[in-house]
Amino acid sequence: MLAPGGSPEQRGRLALQWRQVSWITCWVALCAAEALPTCPFSCKCDSRSLEVDCSGLGLTTVPPDVPAATRTLLLLNNKLSALPSWAFANLSSLQRLDLSNNFLDQLPHSIFGDLTNLTELQLRNNSIRTLDRDLLRHAPLLRHLDLSINGLAQLPPGLFDGLLALRSLSLRSNRLQNLDRLTFEPLANLQLLQVGDNPWECDCNLREFKHWMEWFSYRGGRLDQLACTLPKELRGKDMRMVPMEMFNYCSQLEDENSSAGLDIPGPPCTKASPEPAKPKPGAEPEPEPGTACPQKQRHRPASVRRAMGTVIIAGVVCGIVCIMMVVAAAYGCIYASLMAKYHRELKKRQPLMGDPEGEHEDQKQISSVA
Known about the structure:
Layout: H1 8-35, E1 44-46, E2 51-53, E3 72-74, E4 96-98, E5 120-122, E6 144-146, E7 168-170, H2 181-184, E8 192-194, E9 200-201, H3 207-218, E10 222-223, E11 228-230, H4 248-261, H5 304-349, H6 356-369
Parallel strand pairs: 2-3, 3-4, 4-5, 5-6, 6-7, 7-8, 8-10, 9-11
Antiparallel strand pairs: 1-2
């Protein structure tokens, strides 16, 4: 406000200062508006930690006005069932994303394409049945991944390729029956793996993964119990405690399959073979090609009781053989000592007994002297 009655120079100087103050005020207001972006409706935002909490609001879509500088986005306990591929576009600063307790059944392969700084992803308690192998390709910094309580029946090969920073992985309470060892080979820095509460089939398909689990435990990794569901003989038993001898039939099966692949292919084999044509009268019957279906031998998994019984019987037999060898050695030693003692006593008694040969030699000496 200009002072009344002042000189024109003073009034001009005051007006210039007023303009400068106004420009500075506007610039500060614009900076504050950029530093404090708008928060999505009904969500809670923390400007210090850059966290946006939209959990428990019954949302069916991801809010479109999530600030680009957000580092933590919480969308758990909502009604999200399907997400478009651009749901998290331009959120390159996002580090933690929680989508737990929703109704997601499928995720687009490029939904996390812009989340290059993502370190934690929570997908717990959804209805996800399949995963695309390229789903996590653009998240190389991911350290924690939770896929528990879903409907996953298998994991695509290459899903974890490039996730060298992954530390913990949870696959609990899914529909997994077997896993491929090659899928877990890239996880060189994994420290915690949770695979419990799955219907595991402890057969030949899980043998290679058992080798990987033993290596993972040997290098210090933590692993919960992998309880077998099938076969019936191994139900409830931890896969890591099943001896490798139980999988000897797998190598036999592989050898038979490889040898069968070298056979010369014959005519197709069908269960319902057509009836042979009746030969014409006066003509010699032609030999029919062998189209009989060979009966494949069904390999049954070895029984734990049989394996343990074999081990016990082998131990008993080895023990009996060892005892017999010890008894034979002791008998030989005793017999040798008795014979030696007998020969010593026999030598002592020889001078007392008449020796005709010795007397004959003495007579010869006397006759020569004479």
